[in-house]
Amino acid sequence: MEKRKVIIDCDPGYDDAVALLLAAGNPNIEVLAITTVAGNQTLEKVTRNALRIAKLARLEEVTVAAGAARPLLRDQVVVAANIHGESGLDGTTLPEAEYRVDPRCAAQVIVDTIMREPEKTVTLVPIGPLTNIALAARLEPRIVDRVKEVVLMGGGYHIGNVKPMAEFNIENDPEAAYIVFEEKWPIVMVGLDLTYQALATKDVKEKIARIDTPCAQFLTQVLTRFSENYKRSKGFDEPPVHDPCAIAYVIDPSIIQVRKAPVHVEYRGQFTSGMTVTDLRKPAPSDCHTAVATHLARERFWNLIIEAVKNQ
Ligand code: PIR
Ligand code: CA
Hints:
Helix content is 39%, strand content 16%. By secondary structure, the chain is an alpha/beta fold. The two termini are 22 Å apart.
C-alpha cells in the first residue's frame, strides 16, 4: 500500500501530541510537513512543543513551519490553558530541540508542498484553528482542486465544548473556518460527536503504561495530565483524545463512519458563532463536498495508537 502523504497543521497541546505520535509511528503515513498555529497556547509555545515532539518521535527531518500568531479578525484568547497548561504540555518531559523552523510561513509551506507533489496525493490534516488553512487557500487557490482531501478535527453537529454549540478550533477563528468550509475541496469533519467516543479509559492508560519505549512513556505523561485537567476543569471522568482521530481516519478510513452532509460555519450569531451548522434532514445532494464523522471503532483506534508508540 502506498503511504498516505499528510501535512499536519497543529497547536500542541496534549491531544495534538498524541496525533503526532500516531502519525510518526504508523507505517502507512508519511508526514511531509508540520505547521503550527496559535490555539491551545501562543504560537511561540506550540511551535516549540511541535519541534520537541518531532525530535522525540524521530520526525526531525520533517519541515516544521510556524504560521498565524492570531486569528484573522479577532484577538487570540488563550482559553485552553486550563486544559493544556501554561506551556501547552505541562507535566511532561521532552528532549530539548534546536529552534529549527522553516523560514517560510506555514501557509506558504502548505501551498509549496501541495503544488510540488502530484495532484490529489496530499491530505491536509488541520487539528487546530483553521487560520493557516484559510490563508493558504487565499494565497494559492489552486490547492483547493489539488489536495486529496482535508480531514480536520473541529466542530460538531450536535454539541460544542467552549460554547453550547461551538467547538474550540472553529470558535477560535470562525472567519477562517468559514473560508475553509466554503471552498469546494473534499472535507471530512471529525468533530466532537466523534471525538467524545475516543475516551482515554483506565484500561487504555494501563495498557500504555506497560509499554517501555520513550514515546509510550511520554504518552503516559500526556494522558495522565490530560485526564486530571479534564476532570478538574470540565468534570469529565475520562478525557476525549480529539486530534488523533483525524490521523486515524487518514490511516484507515474504515475505523470511522462518516456521513455526507452540507456544513456551514456561523460566525455572526449571538449565541451560535463558531457553530458548524450541519444539515442532516435528508440525504446530501450529490455535489456535497463535506462529510461528518459519526462513529468510531474504539478498540481499533486505541490499538493503532498503541502499535505506533510500541515502534518507538
Ligand atoms: C481541547 C482543545 C481545546 C480546548 C479544550 N477544552 C480541549 C483543543 C484540542 O487540541 C483539539 O484540537 C480541539 N481543541 C478540541 O476542541
Ligand atoms: Ca489541537
